[in-house]
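Thread: Modeling a multi-component assembly for a lab meeting

Hi all, long-time lurker, first post. My supervisor asked me to bring a structural picture of a complex we are working on to next week's group meeting, and I have zero experience with this. I have the sequence lines for every component (387 residues in total). Could someone generate the structure of the whole assembly? Inputs are pasted exactly as I received them:
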Amino acid sequence: MAEPRRGRRRFIGWLAGVLAIAAATHVAAIQAYPRLVMGTAWNRLSEAAGPDGLIHAPRPDAASRTVVRPSPDLLYSVCVYDLEAGPWSVKTAIPKTYMSVSLYAMNTDNFFTINDQQIDSGELRFIIVDGPVDDVRTTGRPLIVRSPTTRGIALFRYFAGGDVSDAAEIDSARRGLECGRAPQPAELGPSPRARSVSGD
Amino acid sequence: MGRTPRLLSMALAGLLLGLGSAWYAITGGAGTAVAYGAWDFNPLVGSPAAGAWDRARVARHALLGLTRDEAVYFVASRDSDGRTLSADATYRVSGGDLPARWWSITAYGADHYLIPNDRDRYSFSSETVTRDADGAFAILVSSRPRPGDWLPLGEAGRFDLFLRLYNPAGDPAADILPRIERLDDDG
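Re: Modeling a multi-component assembly
Sure thing. I ran the full set together rather than chain by chain. Output:
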């Protein structure tokens, strides 16, 4: 009688151990997955970026395989940032059609977005920081965005699903885009302030 | 069974069960998606308010998506009668203008990428769709050439439709989203 009972106790103990390990593994995998996906995307984009740190992707078609479900009505430009050595500066002209800049943390969160209708002038400038905003000394009043992670991705979307005559202006805006390590504080000039922004 | 083999089998079974269930949670199930007729809407795409499971699902299905303040995304893998979308059939996607700065309807293959076709036509937007006198539109989604606004499916097999609303005016109601009607069986 004692042997079957001991065998049953062992099995219940084994099963409890399996379930405990499974639960811990499940939670760890769920939490790690977004960072794994973003880390892979960040590395790939970083390798693909030109000398200016930017990627100006052609209009998505059936051969586009970088990101799932790309919109064929948008032109995408991408900048990967790394704030390890200091703040990052972003500057872009605003075309007549829809455009937006979105920032993504390494856990995939879209923590900041601004679009053309939220800009007072024909140019958008802002600075990305990962520390206290007070640590960033500027001569003007640029928009400052705090990134929750040191690395991240800035994605620029330009609507190109309408009038083809907008293509040249959109292309010009994309080619003039700047996204890189912020210059020294003394070199930072004033910037138009956005009326409103989402995110931090 | 000795102590060491028992512990090893326990660890291996636990790891496999944990990884398998995590993969199922990421790839299967609708998560917090809300059904709007034929269309599903996940209000937590890109949102810092998303929980760990939703964030993992978004990383798999909607990486680099925008939050609902900027854009809302609806996906349909079934028609308005609940039947799975298939390139063997023709569908009529119809409706009126949607409350957004601009919108678009795009077809994707089962691999979540744009579907190869001879016309290089992947979507219709609020700027390119043809409207009648009442402002209504009708897009024909089919593998075979169709008159008017034809969205080709190539050799897609199963596919889904993606509706994007940029700068939406609030959350749209289900009854204003386009209907997806199956017209015939081409096979």
